[in-house]
Amino acid sequence: MKIALDAMGGDYAPAEIVKGAVMAAKKFPCEIVLVGDESKIRECLKNETDTDNLKISIKHTSEVIEMGEHPADAVRNKKDSSIVVATRMVKDGECDAVLSAGSTGAAVTAAQLILKRIHGIGRPSIATPIPTPNGVTLLLDSGANVDSKPEHLVQSGIMGALYAEHVLGKKNPKVGLLNIGEEETKGNEQAKETYALLKNLTTINFGGNAEGRDIPQGNFDVVVCDGFVGNVVLKFGEGLATTILKLIKEEVEAGGINSKIGALLLKPVMRNLKKRIDASENGGAPLLGVNGCCFISHGSSDAKAICSGIGIAEGYVKSNVLEHIKTALEKENMLPGKNSATEI
Amino acid sequence: MKIALDAMGGDYAPAEIVKGAVMAAKKFPCEIVLVGDESKIRECLKNETDTDNLKISIKHTSEVIEMGEHPADAVRNKKDSSIVVATRMVKDGECDAVLSAGSTGAAVTAAQLILKRIHGIGRPSIATPIPTPNGVTLLLDSGANVDSKPEHLVQSGIMGALYAEHVLGKKNPKVGLLNIGEEETKGNEQAKETYALLKNLTTINFGGNAEGRDIPQGNFDVVVCDGFVGNVVLKFGEGLATTILKLIKEEVEAGGINSKIGALLLKPVMRNLKKRIDASENGGAPLLGVNGCCFISHGSSDAKAICSGIGIAEGYVKSNVLEHIKTALEKENMLPGKNSATEI
Question: Using CB atoms, which residue from B239, B248, B268 is nearest to A269?
Answer without folding.
Answer: B248
